[in-house]
Amino acid sequence: MSERAQRLFLPILIVLLLGFLAWLSPGVHAMMQRRSDAMPMSSAGELARRNSSPFAMILGEFRASVSDFMFMKTERYLDSGIAYQPHINVQGMASEKAREASNLANNSTASSAHDDHDHEHPATLIRTQQGDFRGFLGNLEREVKPYRDPRLGHRHTSGEELLPWYRLMTLANPHQVRAYLIGAMWLSQQDKNDEAIAFLKEGIQNNPAHPNLFQLYLSLTTSYVRYHWDEKKCPDWPKLALDAAQKGATQGLQERKKYLGMSPADLSKMPAQWQTDQEEDLQMCMHYVSILQHNAGNDAAARQSALQLRQIAPGLAPNNRLLKTLGVSN
Amino acid sequence: MEQPSSTFLIARTVWLDFARRKDFYVLLFFIMIFVVAALTARWMGVTNDSAARLLLDTGLALSSILSIILVALFSSRLLPEEFESRTLYPLLAKPVSRMQVLWAKFAGVFSLGGLSYILFLLLAWLPAPKPSNADDVLLMQSAVLQMVVLAAVAWMVIWLSIRIPAMLAALIVLIMYLVASPLGGFVQGLAASHSSLLRACITHLWGIVPDLSMLSLFHSYVDGASALSMPVFLALIGYGFGFAALFAALGMHSFLRKPL
Predict the structure, then answer these.
(1) How far away is chain A from the Cα of B175, in angstroms, using its nearest Cα?
(2) Chain B residue closest in CA terms to A45
(3) What is the ipTM of this complex?
């Protein structure tokens, strides 16, 4: 090799490697993102695992983990500083939305799901005196740290002081969909429905390709439906709610199909990687579409969407009642 | 009797230096704290799935980050100390080329980093309770990818330490390892609001910034993800090797042209 070739070899190699990496990197990043998206991120177990990972903070998932840490912080604030085993789950949230939809269908006033949350008795992280082998040290910890006998149930604060945490959480990680969902729920409970809607819209804007986008649309629908009791504030609420519910139902159905293998025969089966809360939220979204269409006087469209929902959930009683009202026999 | 090669002899000086310094023992102390914590948790009967995940996640993260710190610290001192103490002159007076010196130094630090990682990994993995759905093939793949990360980190620090102060070089590489991923997300977010051409340009340009934390798969292992398919695994290996080769070439280029 000539001297000139020797001198040029390394610079040429460096340029070639830079080109190779510029070509390869986006593909590799996209591949890993797809793999990460395919993980069942919305399952309660997955969320708990991610919440309990202190080292994720310093190892590449900095923003997401700071956000998760804040999420844990809100739960502690909610329980008056007392540390309980994780007990708030996404299934509970799904049930609340189901109740809201049922209230709309029955035209009754809504009750908060959180009001009856005290029925559970989750264990505290600090052991009870009976289950604590540490004797004096255990007594000392129970005296100096926030503690309440788990048999007495847990007391919730009003939730107002949680609101800044949800703002920070979503600033730290704009893809934290559950922070948008729960933050909006608390805003609504504080009689700040307008802010809840703005918060959810921000979540939708930041997560256009998130697999749980339909849950944000469902919450948005629920928030619009709350104007049902004070129509002066938002006279257009039925139209806006219907629009949100339709978008949610469309996206949710697409997402559900990804797990199903597209077979129409499988429609009534719940897909393996699909969680109960996702299924219930999708059903509620579709049910909202039917109810809102029916309330708007568009019974043909209501019938169509209710029949579509029956394919997925043949035993869903509110939907079957609505179908009966719409003149569809079993 | 056959004489050991000059490359081996230079690599051996790195190993001797490694034994003489206390860095490894300090890091070993940290992993031993974890071992004691994991054994205590087992002794106390903490074996449920979420506790197992927390412990294993912590242990595997420790083994990964500590081995990276070790390699970064050692690589940063390989050449600057030779320059300062002028011990490089007698070495280069012998029949060894600069290229050989550089490769031997890398081989020394890479072998030590790799062995330390395997030791840390075993110390983290063995005492921790295992989650029910962890895929051991993914753990093996993760270990192989971590070796590639160590090679890339070593070359990156060696290159930078020729150009800037040693500790600064190590610090820059460690910070880059930690922040490249969130910064990448931020850059992608910024790019998303631009035209598709500009977005593609930004994405490809950002591609030359090493995001080596992407090759750390222990979180996925603990979360119960399945093993990587062969194309994905090979793509990740290619990505890591690409950066290792790039920084090796940059290091050689800088070292060969450095006036002594």
Answers:
(1) 10
(2) B50
(3) 0.86
What is the C-alpha separation between A45 and A48, in angstroms, rounded?
5
DSSP labels, B96-110: --HHHHHHHHHHHHH
3-state helix, strand, coil in chain B (%, to 5): 80, 0, 20
Task: Identify the H or E element spanning A127.
Answer: none
- Nearest CA of chain B to the CA of A276: how many Å? 19
Q: What are the chain A neighbours of B64 within 8 Å (beta carbons)? A: 59
Residue-wise pLDDT for A194-209, tens only, equals: 899 999 998 898 888 8
Q: For A42-86, how does the pLDDT look when each residue is reduced to its tens digit (9 = 90+)? A: 444 444 444 444 444 444 444 455 566 666 667 776 676 777 776
Which residues fall within 8 angstroms of residue B88, CB to CB, at 6 or more apart? B79, B82, B101, B260
Total residue count of chain B as it appears in this document: 260
- In degrees and rounded to multiples of 5, residue B167 shows phi and psi of -65, -35
| Helix, strand, coil share (%) of chain A residues, nearest 5 | 70, 0, 30
Is the CB of residue B175 less than 8 Å away from at least one CB of chain A? no
CB of B246 less than 8 A from some CB of A: yes
Nearest-neighbour CA in chain A from B2: distance (Å):
31
Helix and strand numbers, DSSP H then E, in chain A: 13, 0
- pLDDT at B256 exceeding the cut of 50: yes
Please check whether residue B179 is in contact with residue B214, taking contact to mean a CB–CB distance below 8 angstroms: no
Dist CA A145 CA B86 (whole Å): 59
Residue predicted with more confidence, B177 or A82: B177
Three-state DSSP class for A84? strand
State which residue of chain B sits closest to A12, comparing Cα positions: B249
SS (H, E, C) A144-190: HCCCCCHHHCCCCCCCHHHHHHHHHHHHHCCCCHHHHHHHHHHHHHC
Q: In this predicted structure, which of A1-5, A306-310, B75-79 has the lowest mean pLDDT?
A: A1-5
The answer, for B30 touching chain A at a CB cutoff of 8 Å, is no
Quote the pTM value: 0.59
